[in-house]
Design brief:
This protein is mainly alpha-helical. It has helices spanning 2-40, 52-77, 80-124, 133-145, 160-165, 197-225, 228-233, 240-252, 258-280. The protein folds into 2 domains: 2-119 and 206-280; 124-197, Cd81 Antigen, Extracellular Domain, Chain: A, CATH 1.10.1450. The chain contains 9 helices and no strands.
Length: 281
């Protein structure tokens, strides 16, 4: 009976470590997605620190992979030292995830200022040639987000490119995808995207940052439910078998409360971040 309990506990913990590996892959994917997407919009913000949450979440994903490796080895060997290392790193990852959430909220709030500060300069440097990075960035954004100009297509009339072209037209990237014979002429405004790009760029970048926040928040909630703190205390006088059972009980009860934990953490962190932004930013 005892051996059966040990085997069951080992199976649960090995499965938990496999989940950590899956989590590592998801977090690294989210971080990489943020990097790739922000690269398409990097001309619209100057603060490179905006990408810090993405860097940290990739680091967290790497740590989770290491945790899974240590956890599997410690579980199979019933190593008390290995399980202790497993829990300590898990605690560090949890703290890092909280930091990611806080930084994510802070930099998400700064996105609007960054874009508003930079977008006019980007449009002023547009020259319509593909080798020019700023021109490629504007054409890409206008096609992808279905927008034209900063606030609307009339903003192009104040740009150097428009004045030099002297054809009373906007770039072809302003043309609606459904219009096959669009020339970009302002005399045919219905052929052009009516919405400006600034608000859409801000919305897009804030959505991307929310992916980082929710990914970190979700896995932080999972780790809270695994009861890291309680697991640490079990090292005082508990055998490896008892520790395995303790972690097993915590893990098996995870699904019933995960969504509640995520919602509660989100509300608390929202109030904290709002206070920090009002106080220091």
């Amino acid at each position: 009976m005892g051996q059966c309990g040990i085997t069951s506990s080992k199976t649960v913990l090995v499965f938990l470590n496999l989940i950590f590996w899956a989590a590592a892959g998801i977090l690294c994917y989210v971080g990489a997605y943020v990097f790739i997407t922000y690269d398409d919009y990097d001309h619209f913000f100057e603060d490179v620190y905006t990408l810090i949450p993405a860097v940290v979440i990739i680091a967290v994903g790497t740590l989770l992979f290491i945790i899974g490796l240590i956890g599997c080895c410690a579980t199979i060997r019933e190593s008390r030292c290995g399980l202790a290392t497993f829990v300590i790193i898990l605690l560090l990852v949890f703290i890092t995830e909280v930091v990611v959430v806080v930084l994510g909220y802070i930099y998400r709030a700064k996105v609007e200022f960054e874009v508003d500060h930079s977008i006019k300069k980007v449009y002023d440097t547009y020259n319509g040639t593909n080798p020019d990075a700023a021109s490629r960035a504007i054409d890409y954004v206008q096609r992808q987000l279905h927008c034209c100009g900063i606030h609307n297509y009339s903003d192009w009339e104040t740009t150097n490119w428009f004045k030099e072209a002297k054809n009373h037209s906007v770039p072809l990237s302003c043309c609606k995808a459904t219009i096959s014979n669009c020339t970009g002429s302002l005399s045919r405004p219905l052929d052009l995207y009516a919405e400006g790009c600034e608000a859409l760029v801000v919305k897009k970048l804030q959505e991307i940052m929310m992916y980082v926040i929710w990914a970190a928040l979700a896995f932080a909630a999972i780790q809270v439910k695994v009861k890291i703190k309680n697991s640490v205390s079990t090292f005082r006088g508990l055998s490896s078998h008892s520790l395995l059972l303790n972690l097993e009980v915590s893990f098996l009860s995870l699904p019933e409360i995960l969504l509640v934990r995520i919602g509660t953490c989100s509300q608390i962190l929202r109030y904290v971040i709002q206070y920090v932004i009002r106080k220091y930013l």
